[in-house]
Amino acid sequence: MTLQPYEELVRLAERELELARLGRLDEVAELQARRAEHVARLPSYPPPDARPALERAAALQQETTVVLAMSARSAVDSLRRVDRGRVAVRSYAPAGGVSQGTLNRSA
Predict the structure, then answer these.
(1) Residue 96, in any domain of the structure
(2) Which of 30, 39, 68, 90 has an alpha carbon 20 to 30 Å from 84's alpha carbon atom?
(3) 11: containing domain
(4) What is the pTM of this model?
């Protein structure tokens, strides 16, 4: 059996990591779907010669998982900052709600 399908798996994993590092998460999701389809076509029992490629793909996948987890954590932190900002802005609102003051057109 040829090792080409396993080498392709490594190429997919490398590209996925690259996209994750660039923050192109939509493309990561698309590539993950392609990778899943590719893996589904692989034989249940890989040839012994495929081990290095499979180990490389697994290591790349671990690294991608770390990058995606960091991106998710960063997004959550950003959302928390936005939420805190909203709370701070609301504290400046008048007690009765939005003021219905008049517009001074003389300015």
Answers:
(1) no
(2) 68
(3) 4-90
(4) 0.70
